[in-house]
Every structure is written in structure tokens, then in C-alpha cells.
Structures
1.
Amino acid sequence: MVRSHGILLLIIRTLAIIHIVQAQSQQGFISLDCGLPANEPSPYKEESTGLQFSSDATFIQSGKTGRIHPTLASRFLKPYTTLRYFPDGTRNCYNLRVEKGRNHLIRARFLYGNYDGLDNNPTFDLYLGPNPWATIDLHKLVNGTREEIIHIPTSNKLQVCLVKTGPTTPVISTLEVRPMGNDSYSTQTGSLNLFFRLYLSESKTTLRYPDDVYDRQWTAYFWREWTQITTTSNVGNANDYEPPKAALATAAIPTNASEPLTLEWSNTDKPDDQYYLYRHFAEIQDLRSNETREFNMVWNGELMSSDPLVPDELEITTILSLTPRTCAKGECSFQLKRTNRSTLPPLLNAFEVYTVIQFPQSETNENEVVAIRNIEATYGLSRINWQGDPCVPSQLMWDALNCSHVDISTPPRITSLNLSSSGLTGNIAAAIQNLTLLEKLDLSNNNLTGEVPEFLGNMKLLLVINLSGNDLNGSIPQSLQRKGLVLSLEGNPRLFPSGSPEKTHKKTLLVPIVASVGSVAILIAALVLYLVLRKKRQPTVEVVLPPPSRPTVNVTNANSPEPSIETKKRRFTYSEVIKMTNNFERVVGEGGFGVVCHGTVNGEQVAVKLLSQSSTQGYKEFKAEVDLLLRVHHTNLVSLVGYCDEGDHLALIYEFVPNGDLRQHLTGKGGRSVVNWGIRLRIAVEAALGLEYLHIGCTPPMVHRDVKTTNILLDEHYKAKLADFGLSRSFPVGGESHVSTVVAGTPGYLDPEYYHTGRLGEKSDVYSFGIVLLEMITNQPVIDRNRRNSHITQWVGSELKGGDIAKIMDPNLHGDYDSRSAWRALELAMSCADPTSARRPTMSHVVIELKECLVSENSRRNTSRRTDSLSSTEVSMTFDSGMIPRAR
Ligand SMILES: *[C@@H]1O[C@H](CO)[C@@H](O)[C@H](O)[C@H]1NC(C)=O
Ligand SMILES: *[C@@H]1O[C@H](CO)[C@@H](O)[C@H](O)[C@H]1NC(C)=O
Ligand SMILES: *[C@@H]1O[C@H](CO)[C@@H](O)[C@H](O)[C@H]1NC(C)=O
Ligand SMILES: *[C@@H]1O[C@H](CO)[C@@H](O)[C@H](O)[C@H]1NC(C)=O
Ligand SMILES: *[C@@H]1O[C@H](CO)[C@@H](O)[C@H](O)[C@H]1NC(C)=O
Ligand SMILES: *[C@@H]1O[C@H](CO)[C@@H](O)[C@H](O)[C@H]1NC(C)=O
Ligand SMILES: *[C@@H]1O[C@H](CO)[C@@H](O)[C@H](O)[C@H]1NC(C)=O
Ligand SMILES: *[C@@H]1O[C@H](CO)[C@@H](O)[C@H](O)[C@H]1NC(C)=O
Ligand SMILES: *[C@@H]1O[C@H](CO)[C@@H](O)[C@H](O)[C@H]1NC(C)=O
């Protein structure tokens, strides 16, 4: 292997120095030597790499340690000589801490090495959290195998699980995690699965840490019809990919200079795989003035880019595809062909190929995982099966649970907990109340003591509670005297029967109403708004609201809740709600005020928003608002179909909008597709039309008060519909828990003038809409405290000084937009988000501007074509896989 020598080595770029310092500390590296015996030192330094390996004992609770057969030990590095095997349980998981949102290289190695003397190579599955990652079949792989991905974790926790799929016992030798830069290895969807990673050299050495700061492993590869060229000069590797300098210091050229350089492979097992290619080039020959090296890249016979490449001298150029590529029938070919004016043959230094791997299944709701872990700890439960994700995959769901499965992109929720006869002692665990969708709870036949907690009665979806056969005491809370609840308490000799039936009866007739001074004031304000607007019909009218944070006053209203709403036909009983949602079977979301379930009314799909009593500030406001909202109809507004207000049960029934919200379609979260610029503009026009209607088309006019990307829902044709308008008057919004305050809106979207003046009017919606537009343009978070300019308007403002629209636009658009329409939309967004409300346009003006942007974009779209991107600035980036291409 050729290494760089000489004086040039001293001239290293700043970027590279930083990384070398980091690399020496192996910052964030997790290097687990699985099954390292407890009596051996940990961590220890692996001699050939200098990596610090540690025992895996603190990362997993199960499994046993083993050691490969002594006759094989000398052939492998120390970390591969021990292993952990899992004779018990179906799924066994490692729990690792990672950084959410950052790219990580995750690598696991498996070597059986006849550790048990049975000479029986195992087969099993590997999972990443709830998602299948790979099937490991060690038959014939006497030297073991490896799985490696580059993946962005969706939380700070990562679970790597081994799942038994047959009679053999899963094993694992090492598990390694390397945090990487954020600006490299991006995919449109999914993660990257290593197919091969080569540097073209006749040497036999595999390069890894410390040559590679991220500890990627580069296999030396060469073909007999190639000629090797090398340099002893330093080759600059400072870009986002930073392959090892040693990998760039050698390259292959075709021996016959007229022939292309060709790499071919076949992947007939998975002919539909999508590929991401990373090609690293550096000119390492001293060219004379009359010599040129220029070549084109060809994929499966087709030119990948219209611009030929001329590699920079002793500096890296990395070429990557922004969109994944496919091969017909799994037969792939990559070629470098010199151009007519080139006097030298093409060259290639290093080459990485990844396939796309999808991890679409959402993990169980994070709060519920915390709650069930808390319950497990409270009772000291140790069940071999309680590993990995509690709910998914469903065939591996934890014992004692049942879960709701809406769809693959919605986090499952726990609906049933059965810990009967589990030897539980102590009180009923408070964490149970955090399983908010629980329908069945069975804690019977344990030794539970203490009182029956009040919170059980407040869990509105609970249908079955079995606490029989324990040693509970005290009286049964009133809140458990609820219709439709099956409560079993027999066999608790010290439990009092509940209060006198007469008292109970009275209590249930009273409907306590908690109204705050604030909400009464809002009601008055709304009336003022109504009267003023009806008179003047001008969209700029604003209304004075009381300042936030007022003490609440409890007012008990003893009147029976006789319906005063005219629209009785829209009123549903609670039992009708239960029926339409099939007993709240399918939860489709969670809003600021409660859960949302899917339902059906007369064959039409509906979304049923269940409001907990505590989330409403007042019953009268509820009715007044419902009354108003039932009369609003516009194609770009989610319409209210009906409501339920039976005793404690409050629910709003909306038209069902099936395709998620705009935020998901900007970030790609929840398995949603990222929408292109043309569709974004259309969605913006439609949302603006909805708002315009609220402002000037409705009688009385309305202010939405909570315009944000998560309140713009999309139907199956990506038609936009605004949700949650007008509700903010009697409900806190945005999941905020300040029940007594009346601050409408969501932080970041809220009109800054409101703070100074206390005025909230149509122009406040225009401000929020401006923020939504900025999000659609940039896909930046509205507020990011880690960003120097934390608010999105500040960020855009500072980026605008650079004048480069490409730096502002959402990178997921991959430059595929008409820049005139982009500039115009950006200017419009910034004028909407003007701190001074008087300078903001009206929604009617916004609609006109956006329509013109859309026309401009649509005319471009009809004439454009996509090409491979060529990024060639200075700052541009196996020992056992068996997947090695063949060359020609
Ligand atoms: C990478 O992204 C994560 C999450 O967005 C962020 O916390 C981290 O600071 C970023 N790191 C770098 C080096 O930009
Ligand atoms: C396993 O590795 C040894 C060298 O360590 C090599 O000689 C042998 O061919 C390898 N076996 C297989 C099946 O790859
Ligand atoms: C080199 O390749 C060209 C074109 O394929 C061919 O015509 C020529 O004979 C080859 N030369 C040698 C020495 O093989
Ligand atoms: C370039 O120039 C050198 C002498 O200066 C000559 O020997 C060589 O043949 C030339 N190469 C080409 C491709 O013209
Ligand atoms: C390059 O050569 C090929 C055939 O030798 C010819 O068809 C093509 O037009 C040439 N291209 C240029 C740009 O001269
Ligand atoms: C879990 O719930 C589903 C319906 O949500 C039901 O079909 C299934 O029988 C339940 N399983 C258990 C073990 O209760
Ligand atoms: C809980 O599990 C026990 C058996 O383990 C079963 O008898 C009981 O019916 C279950 N409870 C519920 C509510 O399904
Ligand atoms: C319930 O969840 C909330 C938020 O996650 C947490 O603050 C609280 O401590 C939890 N309650 C219990 C009893 O675990
Ligand atoms: C409760 O505890 C007693 C001893 O403290 C034990 O004998 C009994 O079996 C326990 N009951 C259950 C249901 O676990």
C-alpha cells in the first residue's frame, strides 16, 4: 500500500486537522466486543486499529458469552474471538444511545467459529428496532459475515435485535456505531445498505480506522486489464465524504487507453434494488501541458451526465447521484469512457455502492414505552420477551400487551395490559395513567395493596378493569362509576363500597363547568369581533383580546345541559360515537386537545376528535363554537360534520382527510412522500384560498388563529384543507397546557405584534401563513435554538444577504424548481411575515401572487429534464461481504 510521505504532508487543510483530532478520540464511537468475559479488561485497545473495544454487558440484559474454537482463534482479530449467543427468548436486543437526526454507520459482525463444538452454523434475523434489517445465514460462511448500514436514527435510542427464526441459536461477535457528518450520504427515502466499498489498488490491505476517520472499511480491488498508478504526494481528501488519503493515492486506469474502465456486478436475488453510487476521483499523475484526462460516466450503457469530468490535481472530487439508480434484471454496469479530446485514459480511485433499505415501521409511541418500562421497573418484572419494541413487529409483541396498529407510519399504542397472576406487590403503578389509550387493564390475582387510584376513572377509553384477588383498601373512587365500564373488584376484603348511591346519582346529574375569566372575556371579544366585522366587512379589522395569564375562577353551573343548539341532527350520542369509531378501534392522531379516531358515518369516513373535559375551558364556548363552525363550508377547509356532548363526553366529528399533513410531506416523516415545488405551490394557493374564505367569505368573518403546517391536511389528491380553525377560543391549542391562558397559536407562528398590542386579527393569520410559506420553501424548522438565527424569518433574512436562492431552498427539491417562482414566493412569504401588520398583504393579494408563481412553475415543468448532478468543488467526499464486482 502506498502512503504519503514527504514535506507535503505538513500542508494539511484545517478541516482535516479537526477531524484527525476527533478521530483520535474516537468521539462517539461505540465498539462492542460481544461476549467479552467479565474477568477480562474492558475497555481494551485493539492493536491493529487502536480502537477501544468494550464489553457489551451493559448494553444487553440477556444472552450468554462464548468463545470460538481455539484452533480458529489465531485467524481473527481479538474482538471476533468471543461472541454472545442467545439460547433463551425469541428476540434479544442491544440498546444503544445515538444522536437523533445524525447519520450513523452501524455495523454488526457474526462469526460462529464452532463455539459450541456442535459444528452447526446458525440462521436468524437481524432487526433494527421494529424493522427487519437482514437475514443472517452463516452456513458456508466459515469466516463469518457482516451487515453495515448508514442510517439516521429517529430518536436518541437505537435497538439492534437478534431474532430466532428456527432451531439454531443467534450469535453476534461485534457491534459498532460511528457517528458521521450530516451533509453526506443523503437519500431521498430509506437508509443505505453497504453493497461494496473499494479502493482500486493491487495491495491486499483493507483500510479502516485510523486511515478512515469514520472507520469505513475499504477493500483493495484490482483487475488484470488495468494498470495501477500511484502518487507519493499528499492528496487532499477534505470534503464531506473524506475517504482515506491512502485510498486516493492509488488509482486504476485501463491498460489499453482506448478501452473504457468497466465495473459490473449482478444482484439477481434482488433485481429491484435501488443504488446510490459514490465515486471518488483525484488526478494523481503529473500531466504535461499537452495532456488531458477527461471522461464521461456511463451507467448501464447510458451517459450519466452531459458534462465530462476532469479530475483536479491531487484534490478529491466526489460524484454522487441525488436520486437512486436501478439496473435491469439486477445486472449493473458502470463505465468510465474517455472523451475524444482526452489524451489519457479514464481513472478511478475509490468507489462505494449502496442499496436502499427501508425501515418504514414506526416505533411504539415514545411516552408509552417510557410508561411500560416504568411499570416493569415498579414491579421488578423480568420477562425475557420484554425486549425491543413493545408493540411491533406484531408477532414479537410483548406478552401481556395488546396494541393498536393504525398503519406502518403511525406509532402503535398500547390498548391492553394484562398482568394478572404476575406476583405484583405494592401500589397500582401511577405510570399506568400514561397509557392513555388503554382499553383493558387486568391486574387480578396479585398482592397489590393501597387504594384504587382516582386516575383510573379519568382514563376515558378504559372499558375493562379487573383488580380482583388483591389486597386493596380504601373506598372506590367516584370516577369509576361510569357507564360502559366493566369493573371487577371482588376478593379485596378491605375495599369499601363506594359512597351512597343517592349522592352518586346527584353528582352525575350535575355537570361541573369550569370557566375562566379569560374565556368569558374571549367570548365577549368574539362577539365584538362578530359585530364589528359584520358592520365593516373589512379584512383588516382587529380585535382587542385580554392579556395572557389570568387566574382561573371556578364556576359551578348546576343547570342541566339542555341542548340550545339548533342543529340537532348533527348531534350524536356517545353510544353513536362508540359505534361509528368501532369502539375507538383506529387512532389516527393526537391533537392538542385529545386523541383522534377514525370512524364512519353513513358510509362516509370521519375523524372523531375526543375532547377530555379538562381540555375545554367552558361548555358554553364549546356550544357557541360548534354552532358557528357547523355553518362554515369551503373546499379548502376541513368541515365539521357533527359533535357529541353527552355528559362528560365531548367530541367533534370532522370530515376525514386521509393523506397526512403538510409538515409530513415536507420532511418525509411518517413515511409520507416529499412533495415537489409545483405541488407545494398548489397547496399554498389552496390553503390561502381557505384562509381568504374565513377572512372575507364567512359571516361572521373568522380568524383561524393557528395556521401552521401541521394544520394543513392533504387528501388523496394532495388537495389542501385547513384544519382546527376557530377552535382556539375555548380550547388551548398546540398541545400547550396553560389552560388558564388565552394565548392563541403556536410558538414561532404567532404574530409578534400580538405581544405588544394584544391585537389578534386577520393579519395575524397572514403572518402565520408567511411562516408556513417559508417552511414550504426551505423545509427549515420554524424555531431551532441551535441555529444562530433561531427563528426561520431571521435565518432566511441572513441567507438572503448571500443572494443564493439554492442555499435557501429545501435541499430535498434537488434544485428542481423555477427560480423566478421561488424568488417570488420567498418575497411574498417575507412580506407576509413582516413584523408590522400594516405592511402585510391581505390573503386575497397572497392568493393572486401565489397563482402567478404556480403558472410560472408549471410552464417550466413542461420543458425540463433531470440530469445527474456533478459536484466537483474542493469540498465535494470488506473483507467478507462476497459482493465484489467483476471488471472487464
Ligand atoms: C447533525 O444533525 C443533528 C440533528 O439535526 C444535530 O444535532 C447536529 O448538531 C448536527 N451535526 C453537525 C455536525 O452539523
Ligand atoms: C477464510 O479466511 C481464510 C484466511 O483467513 C482464507 O484462507 C479462506 O479461504 C477463507 N474462507 C472462505 C470460505 O472465505
Ligand atoms: C485497444 O483497444 C482498441 C479498441 O477496442 C483495439 O482496437 C486495439 O486493438 C486494442 N489494443 C491492444 C494493444 O489491445
Ligand atoms: C506531448 O509532448 C511531449 C514532448 O513535449 C511528447 O513527447 C508527447 O508525445 C506529446 N504527447 C501528445 C499526446 O501529444
Ligand atoms: C467523438 O468520436 C466519435 C466517434 O469516434 C464521433 O462520433 C463523435 O462525433 C466525436 N465527438 C466529438 C465531440 O468530436
Ligand atoms: C388484540 O387486539 C385485536 C384487535 O385490536 C384483537 O383482534 C386481538 O384478539 C387482541 N389480542 C389479544 C391477545 O387480546
Ligand atoms: C388476562 O390473562 C388471563 C390469563 O393469563 C386471562 O384469564 C384473562 O382473561 C386475561 N384478561 C383479560 C382482560 O383479557
Ligand atoms: C407521564 O408522562 C409524563 C410526560 O411524559 C411524565 O412527565 C410523567 O412523569 C409521567 N407520569 C408517570 C406517573 O410516569
Ligand atoms: C401474596 O403474598 C403471600 C405471602 O406474603 C403469598 O402467600 C401469596 O401466595 C401471595 N398471593 C399471590 C396471589 O401472589
2.
Amino acid sequence: MNPAGHWLERTAELELDGTELRRLIQLATERVVRFVDMLPSQPAADVGGGAELARSLVEALPEHGTSFAALLDLLFDRVVPKGFNTAGPGYLAYIPGGGLLQAAVADYLGDAVNRYVGVWAAAPGMVQLEANVIRWFGEIVGYPPGAAGFLTSGGSLANFGAIVTARHHLLGEQFLRGTVYASDQTHRSVEKAAALAGVPAANIRVVPSDDRFRIQLPALEERIQADARAGFQPFLIVGNAGTTNTGAVDDLDALADLAGRERLWLHMDAAYGGFFMLTERGRRVMHGLARADSVTLDPHKALFLPYGTGSLLVRDGERLRRAHALTAEYLPAMQDTQDLVDFCQVSPELSRPPRGLRVWLPLKLHGAAAFRRALDEKLDLAAWATGELHALEPAIEVAAEPQLSTVAFRLRRPGMDPETLNRLNRAFLERINARNRVHLTGTMLGDRFVLRICVVSFRTHRDRMEMCLEDIRAAMRELPSE
Ligand SMILES: *Cc1c(COP(=O)(O)O)cnc(C)c1O
């Protein structure tokens, strides 16, 4: 107590009353609605002057408050526009997602009620909604009821969870001779996850891919057997159901056969491709996905959610539990029935956001059918764009036909040396992006630089794809044809 006796003073200024909350939400909502209305007419990217902007935002801890209206202006006028317009319909770079507003509303609700979903006892209902989401994902993949899983912040941590679980199940605590196999098209998060999981960097085997960018099975099998003969302990194959480069899907049934014969864990990185299992075409391309021991799915890609939602599913849920279960005196009793889950027992986190709600709300509001139709539209758009690119042959070469919704292409110049051709294609990419109606990115396929169109955003429709092809044709005309 201070001499003035002020310790009983009530400080309630952080507690908004109903009027203040409504005002806050209303102002925010107006800005969001305006932002979304403007998306189609906004540049696909605004990348100049990023460093100046970042440095101009540096400030000391504010001692006093600022009006919300002024902060919204700062955010929407200065902070948000700079960079890639990842929410817009022209974002065809990397792997888009879009960010469903329904999920933003779910986050608002979830954060407002601030329930604790790390342990079942603290929020049995909220935990069950998230368990339903995991169950639905299992159904989408084709997993049996004994599967388990959890929501992560993204695919990187889902891949990490898979490697930890495989390592724990097959190698226990002596894992330094364990080796991991993945194709040269595998996302770098796998290598990083393996390193974080304690796999020595020298034990990660990069297996070549074929002319459609799928892992070469004979090379994989030979390498596994050679390692075993040399005293290593092969334990994990990471396959791809939709590579980031070209959307390539490995021969999943053949991978599952091989993993079964060699008694290895098969993890499928389906961060990008997985939700296309909602569509008939996707199920055809990814036949065999359900035979994998574990699967990474990124709802913030092909389920269109805002960034910050990935997931890991494990076919035999007990294995996931054994790799993660832990109790503590300061926690409530854990559930030991089959049907109720304490997420802290099957995942690395304890306190965390209620991620289930942002998946649950959009799926409940619209039903899976709406997502299936949207994904079918993306497949159609990628196929349409590919047809248009073929029509530009021989000046254009389609380097990878879409297996899902990504197509890779480049300018072709017979006789041009490879370095010069790569430079020309980089200039081609810059010309397309300079029109600022679409934003594409490139990648290296072996030593060839290629451009890619990746259609995943729920806001991308036929009109934007037509703009994309117009801008490709215009950029072609600007570049020397020899
Ligand atoms: C995006 C992606 C990842 C990484 O996921 P994050 O959500 O960005 O952490 C891993 N694998 C593939 C195939 C991806 O497309």
C-alpha cells in the first residue's frame, strides 16, 4: 500500500463496455469492408520502398493511447498496402490462400470468449468442435476413425510433428543413425523440420525426381537398401501430394507399397494439395493418400483460411499420443476414453489459440460442397490457362502440366544458351508483374528458371485469369523474339 492508500483504486480502463466495443468493431468492420471491396482494383503487389516504410514505423513503447481511427488509418493506408497483395484475386504466386472473412469472424468470437483449449476439462465443447474438424480432415483424406491429429500454425510445424512422431515410433531415443528420404522437389520445411527433430543433416537423402517432378522410385529403393547395408536406420519417406514448385504428386500407391516392404514411415506433405481430395479429380490424382502414416494439410492454402492454420493427421492416433503425451501435477486429469481428447496429449502445445473455430465456422456456414465447387473452379482455371499457354507454342514451353492447380512455363528460344535464357525469363516475369494485375513467381526446375501460375485463392475467377494471359502475351511482345 502506498502512503496515499491508493492500492484499492479500481483500474478498469482496459475493460470496454458494450458501447465502446460496438464502436471499435463497427469502425474495424467498415475498414475491412472497404478493403475487400477495393481488392480487385488494387495493385497485385507494391514492393518498392519497403525498407523506408519499415524504418519509418519504428517507435518506442507508447506510454499513452492513440485514437482507434488514427490507428486504422495507419494500418490500412500505410502498413497493409506495402508488399504482396496476398488477399487479392491477382495473387497467383507461391501458394495463395486468400483469407476467408468468415474465419476472421471466428477468430474474433474465439478470442473474445478466450476459452482454454489445451486441456479438455477447461472447455469440453470448444475442444469437441476442434476434434470434429480433425475428424472431418481425416474423412477428407480417407483415414479410419482411429486417426488423430492437431491443428498447427502451418505446414512447417505439421511436418515437424510428423517427423518427431515417426522418429519416436520407429527409433525411440537412439535415432542418430536414422535416415530420411525425400525428392529434390520437397519443400525446404521438411529439411528444417528434420534438423529440428534431431536428424543429422548428413542423414537426409535427396532423391531425384522424374520428368514430371515425381520422386524416382527405383532410385529411392536403391538408396534405402544401400543405407541399410551401410548400417544406417532408414525410417522415414516424405512424399509429396502437390509440390510447391509445380504441384507434382508422387505415385502415392507405389510409395506406400515401398514403405510397407521396407517397414518405413510414410509421411505425405499435402500442405498444398491435400484439400483437393474434396474434388473427384483430386481424389484421382492423389489416390493412395490414405495409406500414408501421416499427412500434412494446410487449411490456409486450399481451404482458403487466413495464415496461421496448418494440420497434421496420423493414421494410427496412438502413435501420435505416445510421442506427445505428458502429465503434470498442475494440470487437470486427462481423458482416458477413446472419444474425448486432451489436445496437449497429442500435440506439442499447451496454451494456444482456439484454431478449430476458424475452420469449423466456414465449413458449418457453407458446407463442404461450397469448398468442393471452389476447388473445382481452381482446377478448371489452371487447365484453361494451360490451354492458352499451349496456344502460344513454340515461343512458350509448358514446363509442367498441372496435376493440380499449378502450371509452370517459360519462354523458349532454341539455340539460346541456358544462362541467357534464364535471364530472359526473369525479365519476362518482371514484365508480367509490372502490369500489376497479377503477381506470379518463378522457381528453378533443375537449372531452368520457370514462371508459375498457382491458382488457389477463392477470389480468383475467370476474369482475372484472362487478365493474366493478356499480360503474359503483352510481356512476350515486349521482349526480343530472338
Ligand atoms: C506451404 C508448404 C509448406 C510449408 O507450410 P507453411 O504453412 O508455410 O509452414 C510445406 N510443404 C508444402 C508442399 C507447401 O506447399
